[in-house]
Amino acid sequence: MSNSNKENIFLKFKNMSIDSIPKTILVAVVLCLFCSMIVSFAAVNLKPIQDVNKLRDKQKNILQVAGVYYDGIDIEETFLSFEPMIVDINKGVYSNKFDPKVFDDKKAVSNPILSTLLIDDPASIGRRTNFATVYLLKNKDGSLDKVILPIHGYGLWSTLYGFIALEENCNDIFGLQFYQHAETPGLGAEVDNPKWRAQWNGKKLNNKNGDLMIQVAKTVNYKEHHIDALAGATLTSNGVDNLVKFWMGESGFKKFLVNLQNGAV
Question: pLDDT for 187-222, tens place per residue?
Fold first, then answer.
């Protein structure tokens, strides 16, 4: 195309009405490109801050479920009291294959080498990581105070991610808390209600024979193992019941908890 033709096209475009279709499309395209550049720039530059905030929120939830959090606490410093460890779930022992400070349980699930496809899948998670990060809270003399285990499973609308804290005997529950979910406000989201969460304190996972008995249900069968189902949120309650049984059962952390209890990890 000759320079004269280019100039004619430019002049023709320049002389068009400001609200003409070509000029409107051009403005829209330029605006979209500008906005996408701003968003991309913000996403790249804010990612380190977002990562730090996500880490602090995770640490805060671990402190809360372990009962050592209070307003104004230095989360980073207090979290140093916890010893993160990688557990080989299949073997029920600690693993030194990964650095617990950087290992990502969620990413491991998408790696077929580091995870297992589930056939029996009551928690509806599809795959289960073969390695998970647990957190040990020690007493001043080095003895175990509490062990905090990651748990997750599907509720009604979403996957619930949380932690369960167990006493040193690995059977008495100290607390349970979810830090991420999208359940219905006022119904399934009542898993965040402090009164409902308080029910978990003091309940036992297993009976004297070692059978897993913990249950979220409307009907009380065994009081020391019973958690009241959420009113009007049957499917979320069933989801919590299933995910806790899964992770505290044979397919989850049970082998590790038995070994930890017996000092065989």
Answer: 999 999 999 999 999 999 999 999 999 999 999 989
Please report the DSSP string for 186-213 in residue order. Answer: TTGGGGG-HHHHHTTTT-BSB-TT--B-
- Residue with token string 């009113």: 231
pTM (2 d.p.): 0.82
What CA dihedral angle connects 68, 74, 78 and 80, to 10 degrees?
A: 150
**pLDDT tens, 128-167?**
999 999 999 999 888 999 999 999 999 999 999 999 999 9
Strand 215-217 with 226-228, pairing: parallel
And the tokens for 205? 């996972």
The tokens describing 50, both together, are: 């977002």
β-sheet bridge partners, residue 177: 163
CB of 98 closer than 8 Å to CB of 131 = yes
Q: Give residue limits of the domains in the chain.
A: 3-55, 81-261
Are 265 and 92 in contact by the 8 Å Cβ rule? The answer is yes
